[in-house]
Design goal:
It is built from twelve helices and 20 strands. With about 450 residues, it is α+β, with helices and mostly antiparallel strands. It has two domains: about 180 residues, Creatinase/prolidase N-terminal domain (Creatine Amidinohydrolase, Chain A, domain 1), CATH 3.40.350.10; about 250 residues, Creatine Amidinohydrolase (Alpha-Beta Complex).
Length: about 450
């Protein structure tokens, strides 16, 4: 195990991690026309509040993590495509080594004359400077070259609906600090779109990490199904599934697991996760795990007592068929903004043909579309710009996206002389990798067919 594990993320790759991150920086350098700047998280999440008495697990800003692999606070990155000395095209700024802090919280990737060679080898940077010298170094380059423009990573995008931006995160505050430091003499522009256009296309290493996360998720879910009968509450079920995912992995959960029984499944981001499991009801779970910097994002809906009743099976099959319908349409050049409505039309039409035509009645909790069918997956579980402007852009090979249709509401019907009526929440989610001529379901091994689920549950 690398002694810098957790603070430097080592992806699955057939080349050293330093080469993986260097190749990403080189690709972004080719997109820049002036100095580009990235500011990592300034402090561990949670430590900004006095009442927080324990440190939360560190999760680096994904933009910074993608280019450096550094999962620790207090770092900055300068990319200079026009640097006279090639060694200064990529400059990493690190906090100085603090043995007392490391006594409390463990080893960090830090600036120290004694360990500089080791850190260069680890990270792939030839030029590493103390973080406290960042503003002095940047100002010297601006003055020396009379720069009128800088690029920085902060979330601002221009699309067909006008300019959209995030104004209150650490990246926005960093951009404000840049403007303030140079007092309007230098224009600061967002490089977020350039960066994300590069980042949403997964390279070989990230695809391998994504596949590995799927394998861990599959093993955990299959074992979960075989043990579901032993759980009494949503909490017991969640803890078991979380443990089985994490005990295999090198990272953490992709996001907090949703474990929603019965009517609770009609709450899209249900977080209570502590109510009794009801026999005869459906259990919806949304779960995933990290591998390196990548994630799996899976949803499944299963019967608590091991077998779907006729109403549940009818509705579940509609959602499953909608998922397969969407997968058939995902391919390079298609736009998610065009594909998404077709899935909800499919579900609506199927409800009329397969449910209402048999005398069924239903009341949805939304107007036809409860949520998006697809979001991009990558460094973030919801990858890409936060306003999803990417929905209007053509899909490209290497993109990874969710496929998660759902159905939520009250349903009532008589089938074979038996009356069924219940609140139902169903979501089925797999992850699709866009290929040259279509897409690959990299979650295909994770059971979702009715017969497969019932067999494992039995």
């Amino acid at each position: 195990m690398n002694r810098y594990s957790q603070v430097f993320i080592d992806p699955v790759a057939d080349v050293p991690a330093a080469e993986v991150y260097r190749s990403r920086r080189e690709a972004l350098l080719q997109k820049l026309h002036t100095i580009g700047l990235f500011c990592g998280i300034l402090q561990n999440p949670g430590t900004e509040e006095v009442y927080v008495e324990i440190w939360n697990k560190m999760v680096q800003d994904p933009g910074f993590l993608f280019l450096t692999g550094l999962n620790q606070p207090g770092c900055k990155l300068l990319l200079d495509p026009h640097a006279e000395d090639p060694d200064f095209r990529e400059v990493l700024f690190l906090p100085k080594k603090d043995a007392y802090k490391e006594f409390w919280t463990g080893i960090k990737v830090a600036y120290s004359e004694e360990t500089l060679g080791e850190v260069r080898s680890l990270t792939g940077f030839k030029t590493i400077l103390p973080e406290e010298e960042f503003w002095t170094y940047l100002n010297s380059q601006v003055v020396k070259r009379n720069l009128k423009e800088l690029e920085a990573f902060y979330l601002e995008f221009s699309g067909e609906f006008g300019k959209k931006s995030v104004s209150d995160d650490h990246n926005a505050k960093f951009a404000e600090e840049l403007q303030k430091r140079f007092d309007g003499r230098v224009q600061v522009k967002s490089l977020a779109e350039k960066h994300l256009d590069l980042r949403v296309i997964l390279d070989k290493a990230r695809i391998e990490d994504s596949r590995r996360a799927q394998g861990w998720t599959n093993h955990a879910f299959c074992e979960f199904l075989q043990n579901l009968k032993n759980f009494k509450t949503e909490r017991e079920a969640k803890l078991f599934l979380d443990y089985k995912m994490q005990v295999q992995s090198d990272g953490d959960l992709a996001f907090p697991t949703i474990m929603a029984n019965g009517k609770n499944a009609c709450c899209l981001h249900y977080v209570k996760n502590d109510e009794p499991l009801e026999p005869g009801k459906l259990l919806l779970m949304d779960f995933g795990v990290r591998s390196g910097t990548q994630h799996s994002d899976i949803s499944r809906t299963v019967p608590v007592n091991g077998k779907f009743n006729p109403l549940q099976k009818l509705l579940y099959t509609i959602v499953l068929d909608a998922q397969k319908f969407h997968q058939q349409n995902v391919k390079p050049g298609a736009k998610l903004a065009d594909l998404d409505p077709k899935v909800w039309d499919f579900i609506w039409d199927a409800l009329q043909e397969r449910f209402v035509a048999k005398g069924g009645r239903f009341r949805l909790l939304y107007d036809k579309r409860p949520h998006g069918v697809s979001h991009l997956i990558g460094e973030q579980i919801h990858e890409g710009d936060p306003f999803r402007c990417y929905m209007q852009k053509p899909l490209k090979p290497g993109m990874l996206l969710s496929n998660e249709p759902g159905l939520y509401g009250f349903f009532e019907i008589d089938l074979d002389g038996v009356h069924y009526a219940e609140d139902v929440g169903i979501r089925i989610e797999n992850d699709l990798l866009v290929t040259e001529d279509g897409c690959e379901d990299i979650s295909a091994e994770i059971p979702r067919e009715v017969a497969d689920l019932e067999t494992l549950l039995a």
